[in-house]
Amino acid sequence: MSQLDTASAPGRTPAWRYAIGMFGTSIPINMIKGSMITFYVDILGLDVRAYGVVMVIYAVIDALDNPLLGHLSDRTRTRFGRRRPWLLVGAPMLAACMIAFFSAPTSLQGIGLVLWFAVFAILCEAFDSMLNANYGALLPELYPQERDRAVANGLRQGFQLVALVISLAVTPLLTTQVFGTEDSTQGFQITAIIYGAVALVVIVFMALGARERPRYSTRERPLLLPSVWSIVRNRMFWTVGLTGACYGIAMALVLSGIQLYVRYSLGLPVGNAFYLQGIVILISAGGLVVWTRVVARRGALWAWRLAFAVLAAGFAALFFATDLVTAIAAGVLVGAGWSGMLATNDLIVARVLDADAARNGEHREGLFLSAFGFFGRLNGIVTGLALTSLGVFFGYNSGDDPGGDPGLAFRMYLCVYPFVLTTIGAVAARLISVPIETPPEAAEPVEPVEPPPAGPVDESAGERPR
Question: Helix 21-36 and helix 110-142: axis angle, to 10°?
Fold first, then answer.
């Protein structure tokens, strides 16, 4: 490394300053995902079949625009860095769209309600993708070593869990008791305004403090089609991405259905979701410390495999809960498994990014993470189809037409479907091998004077025993 490189290297970004950004990015999207079914289907009367169609369409659109957003981020060259401009633009746009999403006029019916839901659901997910592609791309760049990543990731997941306590557990109380009632929409609108303002301030604060590494912005701007082709030919992209999707889809089902599980399956007021979600999130927050230590001792891959198995067991236990006490007891196990996935899943993905950078000589974390986001977009398709299946098998079509056994319907939605997905993920994780942590080429990138050699690095190396 030359003296010039050393002199121009930016100072280190404090882990807490980066991690707090997760608080800002998590509040809006988790309020949306956690309350959209209650708001649109149960209160406004949107038919679940229309909901399912919209979710499939927006998932397809979002899967297509994600790689484009990540690629544009990788190609961005400004004196403020590659990622920060996108963060500063995306934050106010997401806040505004979230407020509009929960401001649907109660007079809307039929196609008008469907269009309002579709437009703002798609816009919210698009701006959330813009934020998270850039925010996530900063993790491997700011913290090249896995131990540092584990600390930063543990902190940001802790901030995410705090955001989840607010956006999921506290939201039902705010929307139904503080600012509104069980059957009104006013509480959702006021809560969305408050959350949007908080998220905007936090994201801007984080973005202004992130010290990107200039050497990661090579003069060569990666081309879209060759980059996409290189990624889709990467076997680890498919194996890790599809396995991680089993976890992501399972949690998307849980977050979107928990309020109606409490209402119909447990026979309690929606406000009681506060206690169930609160316990799960608190257990997850406390577990991050334990799982971070497990990662340090046994490695991310070993911990990732164990977390999958614990999470699957938690969903099995939740199916048999009959009241709030037994649901909370099962939720403790769910929280432990969820905590393990939060602590490890991004570390597994980061190893794949490192291997790609070492092989190709380009840091295209934005495109790669957005490509991984394709699997996340499956959440919308599966949750839409899963909700539609409740109408087919159990007769639940909306809050106005809940069918003969909505309690069993939401046990299926919240417990059985996630259990099947996480069991598949646990088995697949046992068969996956990921690269050794942080290849030197990825940890200390230096822009080459000559084109990088064409020969690939060894991708077959599995995790070394510790």
Answer: 150
The alpha carbon torsion through 272, 278, 279, 283 (nearest 10 deg) reads 170
Handedness of CA 436, 440, 441, 444 (dihedral sign): positive
How far CA 381 is from CA of 55, 161, 341, in Å, comes to 6, 25, 22
What confidence tens digit (pLDDT) does each residue in 139-167 have? 877 887 777 878 888 888 889 888 888 88
Note whether 66 and 373 are within 8 A (CB).
yes
Q: What is the 3-state secondary structure (H, E, C) of 228-255?
A: HHHHHCCHHHHHHHHHHHHHHHHHHHHH
Question: Is this prediction's pTM over 0.70?
Answer: no
> What gap in Å lies between CA 310 and CA 333, rounded to an integer?
7
State CA 124 to chain mean position distance: 14
Burial class (CB in 10 A: 0-12, 13-18, 19+), 298: middle
Q: Is 425 exposed, middle or buried (0-12, 13-18, 19+ CB in 10 A)?
A: buried
Q: Which has the closest alpha carbon to 134: 60, 79, 197, 203?
A: 203
Q: Taking 70 as the threshold, does the pLDDT of residue 3 lie above it? A: no
Query: CB neighbours (10 Å) of residue 235?
Result: 9
Cα distance between residue 112 and residue 77, in whole Å: 41
432-466 core/surface letters (b: 16 or more CB in 10 A; e: else): bebbebbbebbbebeeeeeeeeeeebebeeebeee
Neighbours of 192 (CB within 10 A): 26
Token pair of 282 as six digits: 């608190």
Mean predicted confidence (pLDDT) in 246-256: 88
Report helix angle 224-232 to 48-75, nearest 10: 120
Give the whole-angstrom CA distance, residue 286 versus residue 342: 12
Q: What was the pLDDT predicted at 462?
A: 41
The CA–CA distances, whole Å, from 465 to 233, 299, 302 equal: 28, 8, 10
Task: Work out the end-to-end distance of the chain between its first and last CA atoms, rounded to an integer number of angstroms.
Answer: 30
Please report the pLDDT score of residue 302 as a whole number.
93
pLDDT score at 351: 80
CB 90 within 8 A of CB 130: yes
